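Batch manifest, entry 17 of 40.
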Amino acid sequence: MSTRRRPASGSPTLLYDGDCGVCTVFARLIAMADFRHQLGILPFQDRGARHLLEGWTQAQIERSAHFVTPDGRVHSGQKALHRTLSLLPVIGLAHLRLGSSSLVTRLEGALYNVGKALRNQMKCAPPA
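Output type: structure tokens
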């Protein structure tokens, strides 16, 4: 079962693959960590999510997770992870203190690559 939290007006939204077990577990963890509900979280298969990626091909949408800002800018892949983590209360504090240091970037890259490898290994990712 996928995680769905409709974004409040003016809130960013994390879009993820609701058909992927790894992605769904990650979305649930994000939802639990976002106890202030600052982030909408939707599978990109959700009808309410489709308008956020208007003009994107299905292959582009399925390639990775996406973080959509209230003004419509889209950050995908590791950049989506960075934006998402920076909103979470505890992790966001570390982001404020460390900024975009190379350590933070490397840790986020490692985390993203592990998730991506698991997604590919479980055959959740679309064929390249």
